[in-house]
Design brief:
Length: about 220
């Protein structure tokens, strides 16, 4: 099977987590969703979670050093041998430079960076309606992709909840943080010939098809 080593880039609510899961299933790679890892650490009250909690609540980025070490270690795990989908990392130029160094040490290269684009009003609709499973992390949307079991997860029966950082004021902070600290990565990867722009509006399967098309013969 082909392998992929890709980064999903895009503002909050662009659909990175949704598409990362589909890519992980299709290519049998590991999925590294830094937001999910941090939220779990907060719930588990680990040292990482205690350090990250305040940043997550405010919608700000946790320090680069924390996240770079975390991803660097995760990439060495066995399930990443057949490739990886990075969702939510890198998010600053410094993180992107660190990723380059980590991959160089490992003797591998990124296949591509998929920059997902959606307009502001769609972002707000998606984040306001998002529900996640407390148990398995499955994603739903109150309108676009509701659970058939009301407040319970279709896959495991776990309780669905709304993320704390999906409140209106925190969404605004997250969007500002994206524009100032993460959007410059579009140029960074564009200049390196790695970037594909993906229209993130439309049905989940249609967006997935666009991504597969953009990946072309990647990893074959
Ligand atoms: P993180 O969890 O990564 O949040 P984010 O980047 O803001 O992205 P989201 O998870 O909000 O959205 P998404 O693009 O994954 O969309 P989704 O697929 O869920 O990070 C959270 C926090 O952790 C950060 O604020 C920061 O504090 C910290 N952090 C994380 N990484 C960091 C890093 N590298 N450095 C420093 N700090 C870091 O979709 C959204 C909704 O829309 C869902 O309900 C879904 O069902 C629905 N949906 C998806 N696609 C479609 C579609 N095509 N049509 C209709 N609905 C759709």
């Amino acid at each position: 099977m082909a392998s992929v080593r890709v980064v999903l880039l895009g503002p909050p609510g662009a659909g990175k987590g949704t598409q990362a899961k589909l890519l992980r299933e299709q290519f049998d790679t590991c999925q590294i969703s830094t937001g999910d890892i941090l939220r779990k650490a907060v719930v588990d009250k680990t040292p990482l979670g205690q350090e990250a909690a305040a940043y997550l609540n405010r919608g700000e980025l946790v320090p680069d050093s924390v996240i770079v070490n975390l991803v660097g270690e995760r990439l060495k795990e066995k399930d990443c041998e057949n490739g990886f989908v990075l969702d939510g990392f890198p998010r600053t130029i410094a993180q992107a430079e660190s990723l380059e160094r980590i991959l160089k040490t490992m003797g591998i290269r990124l296949d591509g960076v998929l920059s997902m684009q959606i307009p502001h009003d769609v972002i707000v609709d998606r984040l306001a309606g998002r529900r996640s499973c407390k148990n398995c992390g499955a994603l739903y949307h109150r309108v676009f992709d509701p659970s058939t079991r009301g407040g319970a997860c279709d896959q495991c029966g776990g309780e669905l909840y709304q993320r704390d950082d999906d409140r209106e004021e925190t969404i605004n902070t997250r969007l500002n943080v994206y524009e100032t600290q993460t959007a410059p990565l579009v140029n960074y990867y564009g200049q390196r010939g790695k970037l594909s722009e993906i229209d993130g509006v439309g049905k989940v399967d249609d967006v997935h098809r666009r991504i597969i098309q953009a990946l072309g013969g990647v990893g074959n």
